[in-house]
Every structure is written in structure tokens, then in C-alpha cells.
Amino acid sequence: MEDRSLAITDLGAPGFSGRALSPQALVAVMDGHGGPGTAEWLRDNLAAEVRAHLGRVAQEVRQLQVYPSTATLLLNFICVAALSAAFATADQKLLLEAQVTSSGSCLTGALVIGARLYVFNVGDSRTLLCRAGALQLATRDHKPDAPAEWDRISEAGGIVLHGRVMGELAVSRAFGDFHLKDPLRLPPEHPRRSPAPLAGGYPQGLTDRWALLQKEAAEGGEEEEPLWQSPLVIPTPEITVAALTDQDEFILLACDGLFDVTTNEEAVEAACSSLRTEGGNDFVAHACETLATRCVVS
């Protein structure tokens, strides 16, 4: 198993006190690939990064009372920026401090600040919000063949083959996977410092460029240039903001395996059925069991 999860009822971010800003609850699911290292690191460290970055914008948040007419809009903007910055910092620390270079992880989840819900996604795991017994909100998958992702990867100097980044990774956003971000930052002996082998080989132009850069560096004593003009795979989250209501029943977090065999609506309907059947806290275990069984049977 390469998947991990975290659930924190209150981050206790410095400066985020008062009814409108408390608690700051964080829940997330990490869908690891290539080993559990990245998912484990995120489970153990992501919450601290989110807490720290929220603390850094606390003064700006406290000043929002001066602008009551736009306070909600500004709060959302500030918190989305802080969350995005926390993810970028976490990805940098993952390489520099943890030395996790061979694995990667998708991530999805939600940050609740008072009565505001910030749903985030990196990769193809999903978070769903159920309101009044129906699907209200769902994250969007980050697939390499999506037009916007395809264009970004191409502009960075990469290619999408068979729906995968460089014919290898089936998601266009993830933590880790540094050989598809800046392979020259990996240790020289790392097997993925140069492009991973592809069945049938890479396009000749890409192979020749890599060989030329290495040859010039060896002959001229200069530092090697990055293979990509910018990372092909990024940890940038897509964040959706919603105001919580009395009709909100639950959020459902799951890896892509569930959605390979069921739709968002079907997943919410199954969880709602468990809620009506079991009631109380038992419905969570029952809903998870029901959805897991559906995956296995399908």
C-alpha cells in the first residue's frame, strides 16, 4: 500500500482566532506511486507547512475587518494563496530535506476555516461534497491529455504519449516525481537523472538534446542545463471555495481507484445510503466498506 491519509481537527494557526476563523481543520488523502516515501512524508509534514503559511498571512486576515464589504472575497484570496504556497514549499522540502527522489504522490482534501471550505486537488484523487443528499462539489482530475495540461507540458519542453507525461506518468500534477520536474537536481548517480527509458524510445530530437547537453557540460566544464524549461509535473493545487451550510452532510475523499468504477454521483449516493441505514458515526465505516466492496467487485 502506497496510500496515506491525515485528519487534524484544528491546526491552531497563529493569529487565526475568533469564531469566523476557527477551527482550521485539515483532511487529506495521499495516493502514492513508485513507493510510499512521498505519501508518508506528506502525511507527516504537510499540516505543519499549511499551519506555518496560514500564520504568515494572519496579519492580513486580521486587517480584513477594515473592509467589511469585501472581507469574504479577500479572505478567500489570501487563504488560497497561502495554501498554494504551502504546497510549493512542501514539494521543495521533500527533495532537499527528505531526499525522496524515486516516488510521487497525488493528494486531495479539504481545509475548513470557520464556516469556509477550501477543497484542493493535485492529481487524480477526488474530494466530493454532499449537500442535502446530493453531490454539490467535486474536484477535477489533472490528466496529461487535458487541453490545458497538455499545452503546459508542451510549452515546458515535454511530450504526452499515450496519455502519460513523457509516456510514463498518468497524472500531470503531483508531489515528488522530481525526474519530471528538474532531473539535474537529483544525485548524479540517480537512475532517473536522465529520461527514463521508453518502449520504442523517445523522439530522436529529445534524445539528441539530452546527449548534447551532457557532452557540452563534460567538455566545457560548464554546469548542465535543465532538460525542461519548466517542470513537466507540478504540485500546484486546484482549489475550490465554498461556504458551509446546515445542509452539508459530509465530504468524501478517495483515490482514483474508486472513480475508475463509479461516478461522483454514484459514490455520494452510496455514502448517503449508508448514512440513512446506519446513522451516527457508524455510517463512516459502513460507507467506506460499501465503496471498497464496489471497487473489488467491479
Question: How would you explain this protein's 3D organization?
Answer:
This protein is of the alpha+beta class and about 300 residues long. The protein has two domains: about 5-145 and about 235-295, PPM-type phosphatase domain (Phosphatase 2c, domain 1); about 145-220, no CATH class. It has helices at about 35-55, 60, 70-95, 145-155, 205-220, 255-260, 265-280, 280-295; strands at about 5-10, 25-35, 105-115, 115-120, 125-130, 135-140, 160, 165, 175, 240-245, 250-255. A hairpin with a 2-residue loop joins β7 and β8 (about 165). It is globular, with a radius of gyration of 21 Å.
Features:
298 residues, alpha+beta, Phosphatase 2c, domain 1, 2 domains, 11 strands
Strand content: 15-25%
What is the strand tally? Answer: 11
The main β sheet shows up as: 6 strands, antiparallel
Percent of residues in helices comes to: 25-40%
At the fold tier of CATH, the topology name of the largest domain is Phosphatase 2c, domain 1
Counting DSSP H or I runs of 4 or more residues, the number of helices is 8
Give the N-terminus to C-terminus distance in angstroms. Answer: 20 Å
CATH class of the largest domain: Alpha Beta
Tell me the name of the CATH homologous superfamily of the largest domain.
PPM-type phosphatase domain
Name the helix and strand elements from N-terminus to C-terminus, one letter apiece. EEHHHEEEEHEEEHEEHHH
**Outline:** globular
